[in-house]
Design brief:
Blueprint (H helix, E strand, L loop, with lengths): L1 H14 L3 E7 L4 E6 L6 H19 L1 H7 L19 H10 L7 E2 L1
Antiparallel strand pairs: 1-2, 1-3
Length: about 110
């Protein structure tokens, strides 16, 4: 399922010309460090990633469909910030510290 969520996030980013600099998929949340074109609103990008991944994984994994029927797959909110005040190295170090399984991270 994690691989499928990762593939869906990649697809949404590719379709929106968003570069994924780093991502970490944990058991209960996702960190994605991206470079987004100015024409794309972050809220729209997150809505597309969460909406499409929720729809597709619930359709493809019956156990999730039963568990989340009529409920939210992802949490309602999200956090975003720019890295203007900090360096890219600091962001990457933060993400490195959130890797539970090194095979879950990709650049």
């Amino acid at each position: 399922m994690r691989l499928r969520v990762r593939a869906i996030i990649r697809q949404v980013c590719r379709e929106n010309e968003v570069d994924i600099l780093r991502r970490v998929l944990s058991s209960d949340h996702v960190h994605v460090f991206v470079s987004v074109p100015p024409k794309i609103a972050i809220s729209d990008l997150v809505r597309k990633m969460k909406g499409r991944s929720s729809h597709k994984v619930q359709r493809e994994f019956a156990v999730l469909r039963r568990r989340y029927w009529g409920r939210r797959f992802w949490g309602r909110g999200y956090f975003s910030t720019t890295n203007g005040a900090i360096t890219e190295d600091i962001v990457l170090q933060y993400l490195k510290n959130h890797i539970a399984d090194p095979t879950d991270a990709s650049r």
